[in-house]
């Protein structure tokens, strides 16, 4: 790795961004010339880090993102920034329009850069009980899935139209230590810790039977780096889409049962009197493609990740 290697991470202050910075720093610690890591954030400023230079910029602001890209001229870009909440307009603004703004800036100022656009398994919607491959049709439900699908379609279009080095990753449900209660596993683990500490007796959930493919965030960031730094990137990754998951589906009930076994505590959950059917009752990834292309396989199993999450409490 030469001294000119620069890595730009958007959404660097988020849950995944923090782990990605740590992974790249550790992975390249023994390299003669470690990469320069630039972390882009917009709202909450991350804690200072010796391994990353943080820059405040809004990818929805065309002039700001163009100034940033023209100044840094990154070799690798891992685009994590995204919006999961709000109206269709708000989510499209960041997940689709913001992605296009970033790609346009790269096209103008450093069009040979490698770019990994991190999308989501939400683009698939409900695809049945079988493992979902990258060739499955996209049937997103709701603003997040639709806007993510639009963003990744734009990215792949830039590859075809301009010959840019872009790859799309579709992570399934990330979880891991430090995940907040906005996500179901983060919520369940936090409240389980409070039950053990005697701070609450129970907590509310909407349903126990929806199944999701949970993949540890530490495995996910390793996959992102394995893809973008692959020696066969231009040959086998450019213009492609890769699922990132565990290959298994676990229900919310499975999460509760696993935590009861790990903690030796009974966990009481309050459910509504009427449980509405899930629009996406289950998802499970087929990760054959990424295994065969870059050799990535998940290392953390379901119980290990939950155990590590509990240590936060």
Automatic annotation (TrEMBL):
SUPFAM superfamilies: NAD(P)-binding Rossmann-fold domains
NAD(P)-binding domain sequence ranges: 8-309
Taxonomic superkingdom: Archaea
InterPro entries the UniProt entry points to: NAD(P)-bd_dom, NAD(P)-bd_dom_sf
Protein name, as recorded: NAD-dependent epimerase/dehydratase
Organism: Methanoplanus limicola DSM 2279
């Amino acid at each position: 790795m030469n001294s000119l290697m620069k890595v730009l991470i958007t959404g660097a202050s988020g849950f995944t961004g923090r782990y990605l910075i740590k992974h790249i720093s550790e992975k390249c610690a023994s390299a003669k010339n470690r990469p320069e890591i630039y972390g882009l954030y917009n709202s909450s400023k991350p804690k200072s880090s010796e391994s990353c230079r943080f820059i405040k910029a809004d990818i929805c602001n065309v002039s700001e993102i163009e100034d940033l890209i023209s100044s840094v001229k990154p070799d690798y870009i891992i685009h994590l920034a995204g919006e999961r909440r709000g109206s269709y307009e708000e989510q499209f603004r960041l997940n689709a329009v913001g992605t296009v703004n970033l790609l346009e800036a790269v096209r103008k100022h450093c069009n040979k850069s490698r770019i990994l656009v991190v999308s989501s398994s939400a683009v698939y919607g409900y695809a049945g009980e079988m493992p979902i491959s990258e060739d499955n049709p996209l049937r997103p439900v709701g603003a997040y899935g639709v806007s993510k699908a639009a963003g990744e379609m734009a990215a792949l279009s830039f590859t075809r139209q301009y010959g840019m080095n872009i790859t799309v990753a579709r992570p399934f449900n990330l979880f891991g230590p430090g995940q907040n209660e906005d996500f179901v596993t983060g919520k369940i683990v936090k409240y389980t810790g409070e039950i053990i500490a005697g701070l609450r007796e129970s907590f509310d959930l909407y349903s126990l039977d929806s199944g999701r493919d949970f993949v540890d965030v530490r495995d996910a960031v390793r996959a992102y780096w394995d893809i973008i730094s692959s020696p066969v990137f231009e040959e086998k990754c450019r213009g492609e889409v890769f699922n990132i998951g565990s290959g298994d589906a676990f229900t919310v009930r499975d999460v509760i049962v696993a935590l009861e076994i790990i903690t030796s505590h009974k966990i009481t959950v309050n459910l509504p009197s009427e449980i509405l059917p899930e629009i996406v009752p289950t998802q499970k990834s087929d990760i054959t493609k990424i295994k065969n292309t870059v050799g990535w396989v998940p290392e953390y199993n379901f119980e290990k990740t939950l155990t590590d999450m509990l240590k936060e409490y």
